[in-house]
């Protein structure tokens, strides 16, 4: 299966506002110089995150999985003045590039970067969040969901990326494939959770959006 459909995706991108010059530069830089550039949200999903942030107007945002900082910059677009986005990245090799682009965007005062394991860092954040983006190691999506749910305000949103996992969610899962198992378990958990309403958007690799009732 070609997922998502290449022509539909190209058409959708052609009818979506362009990336800012800075985001385009970060996208190019990541693709040219960083391992696994497919992890970056990219043009279409980045514009979706930016648009949804402008709709929600969050004051406090948490991102799990910064990579090179592309989605953090998109999520910060609709943040209220005086707001703060916390973003957590395990791999210290990304730190210099992340900080460089946050600085170039003039966002270093409204984005706090934490380098380390999200499972350890999340419990140290004594905050209530309006918007949380889960986009780190797939096997821990359910753990992250449980960890952050009490920190999400009533009426707040969680977005989780890669919830269609290249279509692997449709196939029988190899019991050794922890990433696919993690995504399938997370999707089931959310779907069965009566404390939330949710929609799985088939954009790029699938974005689960849920709202705390
Ligand atoms: C898919 S990428 C994030 C992409 C980014 N959100 C974007 O859209 O541009 C996932 C990132 O999560 C990081 N990661 C993996 N396990 C982690 C953990 N336990 N704690 C924090 N970050 C983690 C990886 O190093 C990687 O950079």
Structural features:
single chain; 213 residues; alpha/beta; Rossmann fold; 7-stranded mixed β-sheet; 8 helices; binds S-adenosylmethionine
Describe the fold and architecture:
The chain has helices spanning 6-14, 21-33, 42-56, 70-75, 95-104, 118-121, 141-148, 178-192, and strands at 60-64, 84-89, 111-115, 129-134, 152-161, 196-201, 207-212. It is of the alpha/beta class. The chain has a single domain, classed as 3-Layer(aba) Sandwich (Rossmann fold), CATH 3.40.50.150. The longest helix has 15 residues, at 42-56. The N and C termini lie far apart (36 Å).
Structure, briefly:
The protein is α/β, with parallel strands linked by helices. The chain contains 8 helices and 7 strands, in the order αααβαβαβαβαβαββ.
CATH topology, anyone?
Answer: Rossmann fold
Q: So, the CATH homologous superfamily?
A: Vaccinia Virus protein VP39
Task: State the name of the first-level CATH class.
Answer: Alpha Beta
Question: Helicity range of the residues?
Answer: 25-40%
Q: How would the global form be characterised?
A: globular
Counting structural domains, the number is 1
Mean pLDDT: 97
Distinct compounds present: S-adenosylmethionine
Q: Could you tell me the number of beta strands?
A: 7
Give the neighbour order of strands across the main sheet.
Answer: 3-2-1-4-5-7-6
Distance between the termini: 36 Å
Percent of sequence in beta strands: 15-25%
The SSE order reads: HHHEHEHEHEHEHEE
Could you give a short account of the major beta sheet? 7 strands, mixed
Name given to the CATH architecture: 3-Layer(aba) Sandwich
- Radius of gyration equals 16 Å
Tally of DSSP helical segments: 8
């Amino acid at each position: 299966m070609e997922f998502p459909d290449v022509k539909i995706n190209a058409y959708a991108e052609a009818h979506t506002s362009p990336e800012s010059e800075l985001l385009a530069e970060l996208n190019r830089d990541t693709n040219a110089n960083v391992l696994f550039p497919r992890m970056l949200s990219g043009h279409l999903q980045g514009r979706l995150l930016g648009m949804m942030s402008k709709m929600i107007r969050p004051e406090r945002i948490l991102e799990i999985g910064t990579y090179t900082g592309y989605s953090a910059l998109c999520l910060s677009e609709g943040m209220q003045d005086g707001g703060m986005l916390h973003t957590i990245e395990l791999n210290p090799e990304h730190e210099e590039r992340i900080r460089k682009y946050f600085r170039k965007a003039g966002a270093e005062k409204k984005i706090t970067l934490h380098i380390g394991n999200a499972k350890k860092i999340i419990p140290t954040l004594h905050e209530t969040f309006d918007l949380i983006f889960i986009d780190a190691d797939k096997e821990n999506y359910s753990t992250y969901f449980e960890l952050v749910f009490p920190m999400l305000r009533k009426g707040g949103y969680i977005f989780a990326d890669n919830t269609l996992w290249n279509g692997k969610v449709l196939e029988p899962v190899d019991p050794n494939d922890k990433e696919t198992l993690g995504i399938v378990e997370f999707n089931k958990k959310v779907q069965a959770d009566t404390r939330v309403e949710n929609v799985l958007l088939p954009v790029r690799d699938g974005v689960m959006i849920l709202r705390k009732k």
